[in-house]
Design brief:
The complex is a heterodimer of chains A (about 375) and B (about 400). By secondary structure, chain A is mainly alpha-helical. Chain A is about 55% helix and about 5% strand. Chain A contains 17 helices and four strands. The radius of gyration of chain A is 24 Å and the shape is globular. Chain B folds into four domains: about 190 residues, DNA primase, PRIM domain; about 35 residues; about 100 residues, no CATH class; about 55 residues, 3-Layer(aba) Sandwich (Ribosomal Protein L9, domain 1), CATH 3.40.5. Classes of the chains: A mainly alpha (about 375), B alpha+beta (about 400).
Chain lengths: ~375, ~400
């Protein structure tokens, strides 16, 4: 049942802990911190805190805010983000965001319901409702609107977060046990990643004067890059193709007319594993309604050679399932949410346990192994 | 296209009031047109207001008129990146063409483009003769398949949007597409910022896709003496739907199926068993106990089979897309000459798509009919007329234009 909510106020410490809160961003704005004018002499405590924040998040140590001086940490966060975006490394941004998610989740697990509701409202404009329902297998602590839930939950890629597997009633999704913490911290993670994609941020250049403070961080990034920079090897390995891709390629072979989504999937897959526009074009020349001009235009668009000049990503497993293009997963599929991760893992697996491969493939495989050994 | 059709379309747009073209967020939408006999769509149009649009339509009546489900900062910009996506309506599309119905064998035909094999009814995925997939279709609609589409819309609203999504009737706008189905628009700002992933979850939800019974309370709590906890039929959402589906299946299956699927003891009386389990499932509190683990697995199979009747047959691509072009309400459909029209929830039951959507209410026309199945427009029925019996007849204007737009007749 819905309880009357007691209004709580968010303290300075809350703002330092949860830097996405409206109160925290208002504070930063009022303070008028400006990157161009900021110098280490003015705010001696801020820059070290900002660099510490990034360092801890890259190394996977939980950054702890200083409760004696929350103001500095509230100000350090936007500076940390500026440093982070100025570094221009996607994997570092992802690693920072993931560590923030874990840090925030841990903190949220120790908050009382009134506090959690206020954090959700201030940080994301969400209306969480405190409820207390015990169902056979779970205790429901909160409900959230379907629309708010769907802003975040789809990125978790597991059956239990799928809307269809939730208790949904009158526009509300019921959250089981401690799931609120995962959802809210996921929203915080998302906020960072989304901000990083904005055009203004992508164009952002860090003022020169700050670069000396990032020397240490740059060293750590160098050390960690091999572990976290999960770029798919840009090499075609026949045996590593995921089942969905195999099925689509078979369809092309048998002269089937593929759906738009299947064509898009095949194109993005091939272009992401080192094939060229010409290779993809050659493949599609086998489909019954092949039109070279149109097809070339579309593939070049997907490859980022024309139009928006951005290479398209391959659709995720969820998407392929919705479009009926997932052909039934194998064991490795169960572990992944993205066909290209399947591909990468399969290659790693092949590297560990060499299996008999056709003659024409072995040279290419040697290359892959060599490359992978360098990366591990 | 024949002049008579162009004239009728033009006359229709001239007679429209500008209010008939009213649309939420009008200035932020992209508009698109497809002219008769043209292959390329004119896109990235924007208008100051409805009156300006009406003028355009009167001068160049299109075969098809669309607007974007999305709202943009610069709807006229042809670069999708610079358009500035603000949000998009949540839309559902139900198309009679995608739902297999018995009536299709009366009015639909298909032909293999490779070996010329052909047949009637819902088209096969591959040609039964040459196994190739290039299949062309000639499809029509009748009262029966449009009724099935309407039932799907009711199912979507009454079983999902109102109870599960908490939407009121006022937040739901229903449109007949003017040809084969219905569009449903959710007028609720909270959904407008959802990305494709969020919308896919909604599409999967109403399609019954990805459902895992064990996440809805089915649970074996003791292996030794199997005891099953489960949802009850009074639960909301899919949890309740699952319990109801098993209840319904158990209720209707014959004694042979019952024996095969459920019975633990071979000598137990089937009817007594059925009665006992049904009582337990519908009791309060619910108890699914006394079943073996193997039976529980069968329950899952039954549940997943039974939900097929409960799921909605929507075209998921429309719901998932955040930049879809959708037919404009009160515009004419170039493949039927019928009007795409808004219908309130209360009027949906008695709405007759092949009557109420007629745009050309006056006059008659002489046409040369080539090949039509039995069809009806308004009060007039015609057909079937086979190609060998092709003939000249005078029919009401709406029916004549309908057959011409479908390519089955030409004006005399």
């Amino acid at each position: 049942m819905v309880k009357m909510q007691k209004r709580v106020f968010l303290t300075k410490e809350d703002q330092a802990n949860y830097p996405f809160l409206k109160e925290a961003t208002n504070f930063v704005e009022n303070f008028g911190v400006n990157l161009r004018e900021l110098s280490i002499e003015d705010y001696p405590s801020i820059i070290p805190r900002a660099t510490q924040w990034i360092q801890d998040n890259i190394e996977g140590n939980m950054f702890t805010t200083n409760i004696k001086d929350p103001d500095s940490d509230i100000l350090a966060y936007p500076l940390a983000l500026a440093f982070l975006f100025g570094l221009k490394k996607e994997w570092v941004i992802n690693r920072f965001a993931t560590s923030e998610q874990k840090r925030i989740k841990t903190l949220l697990l120790n908050e009382n319901p009134e506090h959690i509701i206020e954090i959700a409202k201030s940080g994301f404009g969400w209306d969480l409702e405190s409820i207390n329902i015990n169902q056979e297998e779970a205790k429901f602590q909160f409900s959230i609107s379907v629309a708010n839930y769907l802003e975040i939950a789809p990125q978790f890629h597991s059956a239990e977060w799928k809307l269809i597997n939730r208790y949904v009633d009158k526009g509300k999704v019921y959250l089981r046990n401690l799931e609120y913490a995962r959802l809210l911290s996921g929203a915080a993670e998302n906020k960072i990643k989304k901000r990083a994609m904005e055009e203004e941020v992508r164009k952002f250049e860090l003022p020169e004067k700050f670069k000396p403070y990032l020397i240490n961080i740059t060293k750590i990034i160098e050390q960690k890059k091999d572990i976290y920079d999960e770029e798919t090897p840009l090499i075609w390995v026949e045996e590593a193709k995921p089942p969905c891709v195999i099925a689509m390629l078979n369809d092309i072979e048998s002269g089937k007319n593929l759906s738009h989504m299947a064509r898009f999937t095949i194109s993005t897959f091939m272009l992401n594993v080192g094939k060229k526009v010409e290779d993809v074009l050659e493949l599609f020349s086998r489909v019954p309604d092949f039109d070279e001009g149109k097809t070339r235009y579309q593939i070049e668009h997907i490859a980022g050679e024309i139009g928006s000049k951005q290479k398209y990503k391959m659709p995720k497993c969820d998407v392929l399932r919705s479009f009926g293009l997932c052909v039934g997963p194998d064991a490795l599929c169960e572990e992944v949410w993205y066909p290209l991760i399947y591909y990468r893992k399969k290659i790693e697996e092949m590297k560990k346990r060499p299996s008999p491969v056709p003659q024409e493939q072995s040279e290419e495989l040697k290359k892959v192994r060599k490359r992978l050994q360098k990366n591990v | 296209m024949y002049n008579v059709v162009l004239e009728q379309f033009q006359h229709y747009y001239k007679s429209l009031r500008k209010e008939d073209l009213s649309l939420l967020h009008f200035r932020e939408r992209e508009f698109a047109f497809l002219q008769f006999d043209e292959q390329t769509m004119i896109r990235h149009m924007s208008f100051e207001n409805e009156a300006e649009m009406k003028d355009y339509l009167t001068i160049r009546p299109p075969a098809h008129l669309y607007y974007s489900s999305a709202y943009y900062q610069n709807p006229q910009d042809s670069n999708m990146g610079r358009k500035g996506w603000i949000g998009a309506d949540l839309i559902f599309d139900i198309d009679a063409d995608h739902i297999p119905t018995e009536c299709k064998k009366n009015h639909d035909t298909w032909k293999c483009l490779d070996c010329n094999e052909g047949g009637v009814g819902f088209p096969p995925e591959e040609c039964p003769n040459c196994k190739k997939k290039r299949i062309s279709t000639n499809t029509w609609v009748c009262d029966e398949c449009l009724l099935v589409a309407k039932k799907e819309i009711f199912k979507l609203i009454d079983d999902y949007l109102i109870p599960d999504f908490g939407l009121s009737e006022g937040k739901i706008e229903i449109c007949f597409s003017g040809h084969r189905g219905y569009h449903l628009h959710v007028i609720d700002d909270s959904y407008k910022i959802l990305n494709n992933d969020g919308r896919r979850e909604i599409a999967d939800y109403v399609r019954g896709l990805g459902l895992k019974p064990d996440l809805h309370g089915f649970k074996v709590i003791s292996k030794k003496d199997p005891l099953l906890m489960g949802p009850d039929i009074y639960n909301k959402g899919w949890r309740g739907r699952l319990a109801k589906s098993v209840y319904a299946h158990l209720n209707k299956c014959n004694s042979k199926e019952l024996k095969k699927l459920y019975l633990q003891e071979k000598n137990e009386d089937e009817e007594e068993y059925r009665e006992r389990v049904l009582q337990k499932i519908s009791g309060s509190p619910t108890w699914w106990g006394g079943l073996s683990e193997a039976q529980i697995k069968k329950f899952y199979v039954i549940a997943l089979e039974a939900i097929k009747d409960m799921a909605c047959n929507i075209d998921e691509r429309v719901t998932i897309d955040t930049k879809r072009l959708i037919r404009y309400p009160n515009s004419l459909h170039g493949k039927s000459g019928l009007r795409a029209c808004r219908i309130s929830y209360n009027d949906l039951e008695r709405f007759d798509p092949l009557g109420d959507a007629i745009a050309f209410k006056n006059g008659s026309i002489k046409v040369y009919v080539k090949d039509v199945p039995k069809i009806r427009i308004g009060d007039t029925e015609i057909g079937p007329i086979k190609e060998k019996d092709r003939k000249e007849i005078e029919v009401p204007m709406a029916l004549g234009i309908y057959m011409i737009c479908k390519g089955a007749a030409k004006p005399v």
